[in-house]
């Protein structure tokens, strides 16, 4: 009995821990790229790039499911809702299958296809077809049988010539046979045949390349790769209609067949008579691309490549509504800026060699008050490949976006209103491509304490520019310290307390510039010229102890004191050496570092190109967190940018597959103790978290005592918030009662007393 009680207690504590872990993360995903749709009698299910959502057609309730809920960050390729089992099957391009149980919301991950001894590029799940409790999973290598009741895989059918792997796009059941539309013919076999793993049992009905096959009541319809529609007649498929484009999806629901092409949806009745033809201009504009369509409760639902999910009643002339959950324009966010009230995101990017692409751009997104504002490309005055976004710290209504092709975009009150370029400012176009080529590559940007905006202008002679508060531009001769300025690309800028600008470069390490002394200095690769592990520096950040943290393509370095710029002729950064299993190791050795952010407690959040994100202690000696796709809701290990809300401590992480945040407690220190508060207060019996004491100054001493004066906890703050686990120095939970919190500044010049009530 005691053991059973302990087991139940363990499970309860585990559930609480998991719930807390879920609450520590917040997803900010785009649902605009619809990969597939499925349906229930009153619900439509939509799979986006790496998340999904459902809409109840009766209540209009929309529910989202993301990596925070347990989905994988990999790319979804197919989705299917089983009405019989009340389960949703989510298939991925890498072969992963996730089964979501509607009854309790639990998720089961099946890796059987991933583990098959097959090339990785052949494991994509293309389609689900259910018949008699079995789901036939069409993949790029063949068909796999899956028992939706037991959640176990069965036989695998390699149905290509002499048993070879063959890409099966879709399967259908018709008159006792299973039909497979493949890259090499439509093939069929008797579904009652107990030896379907034998390729000889599968016969070729029609040769050629086929994209889909579907049962429509008493008809069997197939479409080949060129968009020619066929019907099954006398043991062969006979073509009868050529589509204007190749189809991307075909499915039958409620006696209706829907065929999707990029520009048009064709809706047929069960006699294959065209009921309605829907063009993309009817839904939104000629620029949207259709991916799939389905029919639920008299409504047609249409998925698009970049604009989400639309719906309307099937009747001609009906108005289409967008059903997509709010979110950013797309998941591949390249850069962020975060204030206490908003998050700004941009999507333009460049490759390893700073070549800009996505020149059509995706505009700019802003998140505030739990809502998204997406500014489309048509409204950003032609600014392409926007790579940085920066809010004026003295005026949150003024924002600047760096375009790595078009210049510097000014945004006021959420409206882009001016584009600085080579013709109207001090910015310059690159000169290596000829006199008629205009390409103004602005990237790094930072405001100094006087409100001047500093920017980097890549691949020109003197690429350090400043826009003064009076509207005047000024250029500084950075070429005096660069070997080949017209081949140099700049990344980000950090400004320290002395006003020194630190600039990361593509091939010249890190450049420092102090305006007061009009001096340039740099650190590059080699022990005597800066000690960087690579000249390709991707990011710099100044911490609260006036250290400069440098991320390169080959690891991490730290300049111990930025004030050395004034005193040392040659600056030198050093690695952080940690003790790992009694061996001296270099922290983040050889890691390609993409971003560094410093939180209110001086911890460093370090993003990498393929290893996720690390959070290390102020001196780097302790790795407190290492989040990857395997141990967290991160949708990808490719970290593009990291920014932190200094008021709440929320860490925003932009990846190439979506943005997510971690709700930490490391907030910036306050200037005084006037705004100290305690939460939750009171602490009720059902609460299982920690008590937070926020609004602190840095290095404040905190002592917690019971009403009789017995000390139960003591610490010193790093930043603006501390946590107390409501134990007496970690030994046991304190009893119910009122506890006094005594707070004092390091020099004793300021004090504050708070109370917290604990109810057990």
Characterization of the model:
It comes from Flavobacterium hydrocarbonoxydans. This is ABC transporter substrate-binding protein. InterPro entries: PorZ_N, Reg_prop, WD40/YVTN_repeat-like_dom_sf. Pfam families: PorZ_N_b_propeller, Reg_prop. Keywords: Signal. With 760 residues, the protein is mainly beta. Among the domains are: 225 residues, 6 Propeller (Neuraminidase), CATH 2.120.10; 150 residues, 7 Propeller (Methylamine Dehydrogenase, Chain H); 82 residues, Immunoglobulin-like, CATH 2.60.40.3110. Helices cover 4% and strands 47% of the residues. Strands 36, 37, 38, 39, 40, 41, 42 and 43 form an 8-stranded antiparallel beta sheet that branches. A 4-stranded antiparallel beta sheet has the order 1-59-58-57. The chain is globular, with a radius of gyration of 30 Å. The two termini are 25 Å apart.
Brief overview:
By secondary structure, this protein is mainly beta.
List the helices and strands and how they pair.
Layout: H1 2-23, E1 25-28, E2 36-40, E3 43-47, E4 52-56, E5 62-65, E6 76-82, E7 87-92, E8 97-101, E9 107-110, E10 125-131, E11 134-139, E12 143-147, E13 152-157, E14 168-174, E15 177-182, E16 185-190, E17 203-206, E18 210-216, E19 219-224, E20 228-233, E21 236-242, E22 249-253, E23 256-260, E24 264-268, E25 274-279, H2 280-283, E26 290-296, E27 299-304, E28 309-313, E29 321-322, E30 335-338, E31 342-346, E32 349-350, E33 356-357, E34 364-368, E35 371-375, E36 386-392, E37 395-405, E38 407-412, E39 415-420, E40 440-447, E41 453-457, E42 464-467, E43 473-476, E44 490-495, E45 500-505, E46 510-514, E47 519-523, E48 537-542, E49 548-552, E50 555-559, H3 564-567, E51 577-580, E52 583-586, E53 593-598, E54 604-608, E55 613-616, E56 623-627, E57 639-644, E58 650-655, E59 658-663, E60 677-679, E61 691-694, E62 701-706, E63 711-716, E64 721-724, E65 737-744, E66 751-758
Antiparallel strand pairs: 1-59, 2-3, 3-4, 4-5, 6-7, 7-8, 8-9, 10-11, 11-12, 12-13, 14-15, 15-16, 16-17, 18-19, 19-20, 20-21, 22-23, 23-24, 24-25, 26-27, 27-28, 28-29, 30-31, 31-34, 32-33, 34-35, 36-37, 37-38, 37-40, 38-39, 40-41, 41-42, 42-43, 44-45, 45-46, 46-47, 48-49, 49-50, 51-52, 53-54, ...
InterPro entries: PorZ_N, Reg_prop, WD40/YVTN_repeat-like_dom_sf
Signal peptide: 1-19
Domain PorZ N-terminal beta-propeller: 44-203
